[in-house]
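Design a sequence for this backbone.
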């Protein structure tokens, strides 16, 4: 199985609700290594750039306002099939459809404020990692 890197974000709701430790604990317990990590507060412009792929979607304005509403934690996770493993730990976008035991099933109460973001493919992982981290910040 390939060793991959993926970008994980703990969204403003996850940080505000004190879930940083719980979320990171799940990643570490399932073999994902943290290769970079920082807390930051996105501006609206930065959130719009990060989610540009969704700019035609009806939830784009609301999503980008939410993502710039408070601090987030950004991480590079690394491991075998890290993109899939992270997505499986996150659960479905809509917490009502997320498998029991996933982060979103356990904690999310809203389709938009759903605790975490994870890259969905190797190409987006590379671009999203470069959006948040420069080479010096990657261990
Ligand atoms: P993410 O990209 O955050 O990891 P995802 O890949 O599961 O989540 P996407 O379809 O890429 O989901 O949507 C990006 C984000 O937009 C979702 O995580 C959620 O915060 C928000 N979102 C998605 N669908 C809706 C919706 N129907 N209504 C409101 N917000 C939504
Ligand atoms: Mg997505």
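Sequence:
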């Amino acid at each position: 199985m390939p060793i991959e890197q993926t970008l994980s974000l703990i969204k403003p709701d996850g940080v505000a609700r004190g879930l940083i430790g719980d979320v990171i604990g799940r990643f570490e317990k399932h073999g994902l290594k943290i290769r970079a990590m920082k807390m930051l507060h996105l501006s609206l412009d930065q959130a719009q750039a990060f989610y540009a792929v969704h700019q035609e979607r009806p939830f784009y304005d609301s999503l980008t306002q939410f993502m710039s509403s408070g601090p987030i934690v950004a991480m590079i996770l690394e491991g075998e099939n890290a993109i899939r493993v992270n997505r499986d730990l996150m659960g479905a976008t809509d917490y009502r459809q997320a498998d029991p035991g996933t982060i979103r099933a356990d904690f999310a109460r809203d389709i938009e404020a759903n605790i975490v973001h994870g890259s969905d493919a190797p190409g987006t992982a590379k671009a999203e990692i470069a959006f948040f981290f420069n080479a010096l910040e990657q261990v």
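Strands lie at 3-10, 33-40, 72-80, 116-118.
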